Request: fold
Amino acid sequence: MSNGILARYLAENFMFIRNAFVALLIASFSFAFSAPVAAEGTWAVEKTFHIGGDGGWDYVTLDAKTHRLYVPRSTHTMVIDAESGNTIADIPGQKHNHGVALVPDAGRGFISDGAGAVVIFDLKTNAVLGTITAQPDADGIIFDKASGLVLVVSGDNGVLMTLKPDADPKTGVIDPPIDLGGKPEFLASDGAGKVYINLVDKNEVAVVDIKARKVLAHWPVAPGGNPVGMSIDTKNRRLFIGCRNPQKLIVMSTDDGKVLADLPIGAGVDATKFDGSQVFASCRDGKLEVARETAPGKFEIVQTVTTPAGSRTMDVDPEMHKVYLPTAEFEEPTPRASTRSSQGQAWEFYDRGRGAALSVAWLLRQRRESLDQRVN
Reply:
């Protein structure tokens, strides 16, 4: 099945795929570079993990220190070894999960469940410790180190919820919610007391003072719209916002909401990530857009990596320079049957600069040969 055909299939059957049995595919791309040409390096496939399991998928979360990937699969969350692709554990007890927040100091993980709950589990044993009632449609979830709180948004009720990581998993309660004035999708913290939240129905970013527990401002994302993915460069005070309609990667100042750049991206973006030097936007149509600041204040798309269609969410290991993207792996349809499921599950795993796979070694040789030609 071609990437274009699969992209159309995914777009037409998106809600079914989120909840049905699907096999996931993670392609491994490598960024090949040496010191003089680091800015010119490219990403390419390294390897594929075949995982197995059922359910849709949403936000994938990486614990870079333990090399564990947490993958919500609708009713359960898989814990995957990011180096081998082996399944370490499978955490049960969810109804419609979305994301995972990790709090290593508390030894706990938190899973947002759209049925109206936050599931707490032990990071060492992966055992479920308890479930705390939340607002309906609990979706994007992060841990904010500045406030020491787990932050969760409720899309249906338009609020931000907060929870102390050491809350009693049996009797704990969510703090009083903060009204956002729109339908939230994902969020990012500046590490200094402010949180920025995409309002997908308002085409805005809500700026929240966590200590004061109030919204300070609403910033428009125009010329982008339908903002979903968000990440942040806390050092340079910039937000990276993935917009679906119009399809844009918006670079926004966290000082005043000024739009610094708007870059064209693929269709169906769901996540953006920042690894300290480059920005990534993963799109459902089979594109991983890679952007960076090419001159002071000037941002450009420097590479569009072809990924399997459906690779809409991701996480990044900034130290090892790797990007992990899950997607569905489908059988080729036959004249007698229409396939809505697949055999097994794979993970595409993108590596920048440390490749051991043959495809990565080839890219490293190619880069070195190109450099030699320029020098000679």
